[in-house]
């Protein structure tokens, strides 16, 4: 019996590793495949096509044919280069953020699309300087001074980067919500059910 699960490439696979190790040791007759993919849209398409028995990713704005079960909530963080004017503000608004050039991840990322829509309500002429491949690359471009950005809290590496300013922003933006993604009406294998139960 084989379980195929697809997970986001940043943050969640690391959090899943210990769970999957325990799962495999307890269900040694089953094979668990955890495959990291960078884009939440890619995860959703794999769940819809049946290529993945389940997905782990954002449960926000799901297509009609996907069921989401929320398991985690993460803060969002404003990140800026050191010394940036935003880093000196005691209070910050979305309007403040939208005034400055923005570094975004790939357009296919669900969080990127939501952030872009939100900021453009405050600045229709929002300037996106770089579309980076993933959140880690986004943080690097911010560090180099290409603009500011917003990171989900699953990006653990950015929190250890002392070359950028990082500030919680869920009070003015929103929490990132992640969990299990399943296709509606699709048979859930015993292996998938056992892994879901262990998360």
Topology:
Layout: E1 2-8, H1 12-26, E2 31-37, H2 40-49, E3 54-58, E4 66-74, E5 76-81, H3 94-98, E6 102-104, H4 110-120, E7 128-131, H5 135-143, E8 149-152, H6 156-159, E9 164-168, E10 176-183, H7 190-198
Parallel strand pairs: 1-2, 1-3, 6-7
Antiparallel strand pairs: 3-10, 4-10, 5-8, 5-9
Helix content: 25-40%
Strand content: 25-35%
Number of alpha- plus pi-helical segments: 7
In sequence order, what are the helices and strands, one letter per element? EHEHEEEHEHEHEHEEH
CATH class of the largest domain: Alpha Beta
**End-to-end C-alpha gap:** 19 Å
Query: Could you say which structural class the secondary elements and strand pairing correspond to?
Result: alpha/beta
Number of strands: 10
CATH superfamily of the largest domain: Periplasmic binding protein-like II
Main beta sheet: strand number and arrangement?
A: 5 strands, mixed
Give an overview of the whole structure.
- This protein is α/β, with parallel strands linked by helices.
- The protein folds into 2 domains: 2-73 and 177-198, Periplasmic binding protein-like II (D-Maltodextrin-Binding Protein, domain 2, 3-Layer(aba) Sandwich), CATH 3.40.190.10; 76-174, D-Maltodextrin-Binding Protein, domain 2.
- 32% of the residues lie in helices and 29% in strands.
- The strands form 3 sheets. The chain has a 5-stranded mixed sheet with strand order 2-1-3-10-4, sandwiched between helices. A 3-stranded antiparallel sheet has the order 8-5-9, with helices on one face.
- α4 (110-120) links the parallel β6 and β7 (128-131).
- The longest helix is centred in the N-terminal third of the chain and has 15 residues, at 12-26.
- The two termini are 19 Å apart.
């Amino acid at each position: 019996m084989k379980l195929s699960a697809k997970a986001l490439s940043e943050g969640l696979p690391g959090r899943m590793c210990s769970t999957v190790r325990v799962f495999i040791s307890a269900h040694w007759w089953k094979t668990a495949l955890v495959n990291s993919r960078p884009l939440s849209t890619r995860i959703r398409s794999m769940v819809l096509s049946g290529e993945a028995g389940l997905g782990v990713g954002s449960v926000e704005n799901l297509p009609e044919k996907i069921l989401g079960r929320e398991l985690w909530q993460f803060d969002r963080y404003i990140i800026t280069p050191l010394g940036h004017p935003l880093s000196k503000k005691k209070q910050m608004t979305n309007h403040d953020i939208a005034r400055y050039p923005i570094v975004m991840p790939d357009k296919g990322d669900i969080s990127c699309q939501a952030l872009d829509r939100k900021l453009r309500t405050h600045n229709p002429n929002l300037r996106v300087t770089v579309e980076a491949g993933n959140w880690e690359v986004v943080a690097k471009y911010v560090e180099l001074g290409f603009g500011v950005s917003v990171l989900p809290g699953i990006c653990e590496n950015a929190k250890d980067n002392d070359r950028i300013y990082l500030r919680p922003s869920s009070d003015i933006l929103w929490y990132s919500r992640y969990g299990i993604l399943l296709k509606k009406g699709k048979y859930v294998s015993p292996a998938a059910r056992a892994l879901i139960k262990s998360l």
